[in-house]
Design brief:
Order of helices and strands of chain A: HHHHHHHHHHHH
Number of helices of chain A: 12
Distance between the termini of chain B: 47 Å
Number of domains of chain A: 2
Number of strands of chain B: 0
Helix content of chain B: 55-70%
Helix content of chain A: over 70%
Distance between the termini of chain A: 15 Å
Oligomer: heterodimer
Shape of chain A: globular
Shape of chain B: globular
Largest sheet of chain B: none
Structural class of chain B: mainly alpha
CATH superfamily of the largest domain in chain A: MetI-like
Radius of gyration of chain B: 23 Å
CATH class of the largest domain in chain A: Mainly Alpha
Strand content of chain B: under 5%
Largest interface: A-B, 46 and 45 residues
Structural class of chain A: mainly alpha
CATH topology of the largest domain in chain A: MetI-like fold
Number of helices of chain B: 15
Number of strands of chain A: 0
C-alpha cells in the first residue's frame, strides 16, 4: 500500500515537472502590468520552486505524510485547504451515487440472472450496456434539458449544506449523483448478473434444491451471500474511480468540488495542485482496496490474511 | 449416403480452414447483437472516411443567417450557435472519434501486449518491477491519468515539424496530445491482462524447446508467446476502442482535449449545449447520441468477440 503511494508520488511529481514554460512567470505576466525579474524570483522563492528538485520532492513527500501538500502555484493558497473546502460536495455526490448504484444493481442483476434469456434479462442487460456507453456529462445535460423544458425547473445553483437545508441540498445533488451513478450501477449490475449465474450452477445449490429447500431461501442464503463477494470488489474499486465521473459531472452541474478543482488546475497548469489531487485519488484507491480486502475476509470465512 | 456418415474429425479440419466469409456468417448467426455492433461501427468508419463526400456542408462553414436553426430540410439536424451545420460536424466528428478510437487502442494494446509478455517471459525481478510500475499506473482512473498527461504535452505545430514527419495527416498532429494522453493509461491495463495469460505459457513444452534450441529471447517472445495470447489481446483491443472514444469525448467536453475548430462530439457539447438548453435542444441531443451509439456499438461487438474468444475473461 505505502510503496504504491510513494511510486505514484514519484511518477506524478517528476511528470508534472515536464510541463513546458514557467508557470509563475505566466501567471504574473498574465495578470497584466509590469512584472520585474525580482518579483518573479520572490514568488518562486515563496513557493519553494528554486530549491533543487530532489529537495523539493523530499519536502513535498514529508509534507504529504502530514496532509500538507504545499501551496497552489496559481492562488498561492495551501492545497490541503483548497481540497478540504471542496471535499464535502464531492464526497456526498460519491456516496449518493454509490447508494443509488448498489440499490439498483444488486436486485436487478440478480433478477436478470434468475430469469436468464427472458425479456427481463434482455432489458437489464441492455440497460447496463447502455450505461457503459452513455457519457455521464451528456446524461447530465439531458437531465437539465428535460427538467428545464418539461418542468421549467433547474436544480439550485448555490450550494447549501446537507445539515442546514436537507431538501434543498438533496434536490441539488441528486442529479449529479444519478448522472455519475448510472455507469457505476451498470458495472455492478453486469458483475452481479454474471456471479449469480455462476453460483447458481454450483453443486451446493443443487444439494440445497435436492434436500427440498424453498427457492427463496436458496437464493438469499446460499446463492446471494456467495455471489456478493466479487460484486463488493467491483463496488469498492468503482467507488475509488468515481472521481473520474465527478470530473465531468461537476462541470455540467457547476458544482465546486474536487473534480472541478482538478479540471481547473489542469487548465491553469497548476502542477503543485494537480500532483496533490492525483496523490489524493491514488490514496483513495489504495485505501478502498484495503477496505475491500478487509471486508472480504470478514464476509468469507475461508479467507485469512496474515 | 457418404455425406451422412462423415466422421467428426474431418468436420473439425474443415472448420479450421473456414474462409473469413463463413466465419463472419457464423458470427452473425450466433451473435446477432455483436453483429449489429459491428455493422454500426462500420457505418461510423464509413462516415469517418468519406466525410467530405457524404456531409451536406463544410464543417467550418458559418451561416450567419442561421444561428441555432432547428432541424429542417436545409440543416437536417439543425445548426449550432455559430450557424454551422450540426450533421456535417457530427460526420466530421466521427473522423476524429474513430481516429482516436483506433490509433489509441491499437498502439495502447500492442505496447501493453509486448510489456505483458516480456514481463511474464522473464519473470523474477523483471516481472516484479514491471508489475509494481503497472500497479502505480492503475491506481487512478483513466481520465485522471489522461488529464495529467494532457497537461504536460504541448500541442504540435505542423509548420515547425521536420519534413520527415510530413506524411502524418494534419488531423493527427492537431489531436496528438489527446492521442498520447489516452494511449498511455491503456498500456498497463492491457499488460496486466496479457501477462496473466502469458504466465501459463512460459512453462509449456514448445517454449521450453525453443529455449533449449538456443533461440533468442526476442524470437521466443515474438514467434512463440505473442501468437498464443492473441485472444486476451484482441479482447482488450476492442474494449479499448469504446473507452477511447468515450475518453476523447470527455476530455474534449472539459475543453482539454480536441480544440476548436476541429469537430469533435465532446467539444460540440461543451459550449452551446447547456447555454441554449431551452431554445436549441438539438445541439445537446445529437452529438451525445453519436457518442453513445458508437460506444454502445463498440461495446456490444467487443462483448460478442469476448464470448467467442475467451468467455471467462473479465474486462
Amino acid at each position: 500500500m505505502i510503496p504504491t503511494l510513494i511510486g505514484v508520488a514519484v511518477v506524478i511529481f517528476f511528470l508534472m515537472r515536464l510541463i513546458p514554460g514557467d508557470i509563475v512567470e505566466l501567471r504574473l505576466t498574465g495578470e497584466g502590468g509590469m512584472v520585474t525579474e525580482e518579483q518573479i524570483q520572490a514568488e518562486r522563492t515563496r513557493l519553494g520552486l528554486n530549491k533543487p528538485l530532489l529537495e523539493q520532492f523530499a519536502g513535498w513527500l514529508v509534507g504529504a505524510a502530514t496532509f500538507d501538500l504545499g501551496l497552489s502555484m496559481w492562488t498561492g493558497n495551501p492545497i490541503s485547504e483548497e481540497i478540504w473546502v471542496r471535499l464535502p460536495v464531492s464526497l456526498q455526490v460519491a456516496i449518493m451515487s454509490t447508494l443509488l448504484a448498489t440499490v439498483l444493481a444488486i436486485p436487478l442483476g440478480t433478477l436478470a440472472a434468475l430469469r436468464q434469456d427472458t425479456w427481463v434479462d434482455y432489458v437489464v442487460r441492455l440497460f447496463s450496456i447502455a450505461g457503459l456507453a452513455t457519457p455521464s456529462f451528456w446524461l447530465g445535460i439531458m437531465m437539465i434539458l428535460v427538467l428545464l423544458n418539461l418542468f421549467q425547473w433547474i436544480p439550485p445553483i448555490s450550494y447549501r449544506n446537507l445539515w442546514d437545508d436537507p431538501l434543498y441540498n438533496l434536490s441539488m445533488l441528486i442529479w449529479p449523483a444519478m448522472a455519475t451513478g448510472y455507469r457505476y450501477s451498470a458495472v455492478a449490475m453486469r458483475m452481479t448478473r454474471s456471479t449469480v449465474l455462476e453460483v447458481m450452477r454450483e453443486d451446493y445449490i443443487r444439494t440445497a434444491r435436492a434436500k427440498g429447500l424453498v427457492e427463496n431461501l436458496i437464493i438469499n442464503r446460499h446463492a446471494l451471500s456467495n455471489a456478493m463477494l466479487p460484486v463488493i470488489t467491483v463496488i469498492g474499486i468503482e467507488f475509488a474511480f468515481l472521481i473520474g465521473g465527478l470530473v465531468v459531472t461537476e462541470q455540467v452541474f457547476n458544482l465546486n468540488g474536487i473534480g472541478n478543482l482538478f479540471v481547473q488546475s489542469v487548465g491553469q497548469k497548476d502542477y503543485t495542485m494537480v500532483q496533490g489531487l492525483v496523490l489524493l485519488v491514488a490514496f483513495v484507491t489504495v485505501f478502498t482496496n484495503f477496505v475491500v480486502d478487509v471486508l472480504y475476509a470478514w464476509l468469507d470465512p475461508r479467507i485469512h490474511y496474515n | 449416403m457418404s455425406e451422412t456418415i462423415q466422421p467428426p474429425v474431418i468436420a473439425d479440419n474443415l472448420t479450421e480452414q473456414d474462409t473469413l466469409t463463413t466465419k463472419l456468417v457464423r458470427f452473425f448467426r450466433t451473435k446477432p447483437l455483436g453483429a449489429i455492433g459491428l455493422v454500426v461501427v462500420m457505418i461510423f468508419i464509413f462516415a469517418a472516411i468519406f466525410a467530405e463526400v457524404i456531409s451536406p456542408n463544410d464543417p467550418l462553414d458559418i451561416d450567419y443567417e442561421l444561428f441555432l436553426a432547428p432541424p429542417s430540410a436545409h440543416h437536417l439536424l439543425g445548426s449550432d450557435e455559430f450557424g454551422r451545420d450540426l450533421l456535417t460536424r457530427i460526420i466530421y466528428g466521427a473522423r476524429t472519434a474513430m481516429l482516436v478510437g483506433f490509433v489509441c487502442s491499437v498502439i495502447g494494446a500492442t505496447l501493453g501486449l509486448f510489456l505483458g509478455v516480456t514481463s511474464a517471459y522473464f519473470g523474477g525481478k523483471t516481472d516484479t518491477i514491471i508489475q509494481r510500475i503497472v500497479d502505480i499506473f492503475m491506481s487512478f482512473p483513466l481520465i485522471i491519468l489522461a488529464l495529467a498527461i494532457v497537461t504536460i504535452i504541448p500541442p504540435v505545430d505542423p509548420d515547425t515539424l521536420p519534413a520527415v514527419f510530413s506524411w502524418i495527416p494534419a488531423l493527427i498532429l492537431r489531436i496528438l496530445p489527446v492521442i498520447v494522453a489516452i494511449t498511455i493509461p491503456m498500456i498497463p491495463r492491457c499488460a496486466r491482462v496479457v501477462r496473466s495469460s502469458a504466465l501459463a505459457l512460459r512453462e509449456v513444452p514448445y517454449v521450453d524447446a525453443a529455449r533449449a534450441l538456443g533461440f533468442s529471447h526476442t524470437r521466443i517472445i515474438v514467434r512463440h508467446m505473442i501468437p498464443n495470447v492473441m485472444a486476451p489481446y484482441l479482447i482488450m483491443l476492442t474494449a479499448f476502442m469504446g473507452q477511447a472514444v468515450l475518453l476523447e469525448a470527455s476530455l474534449s467536453f472539459l475543453g482539454l482535449g480536441v480544440q476548436e475548430p476541429t469537430p469533435a462530439w465532446g467539444l460540440m457539447l461543451q459550449g452551446g449545449a447547456e447555454q441554449y438548453a431551452e431554445t436549441a435542444w438539438w445541439i445537446a441531443v445529437f452529438p451525445g447520441l453519436a457518442i453513445t451509439v458508437s460506444v454502445f456499438a463498440f461495446n456490444i461487438f467487443g462483448d460478442a468477440l469476448r464470448d467467442v474468444l475467451d468467455p471467462k475473461l473479465r474486462v
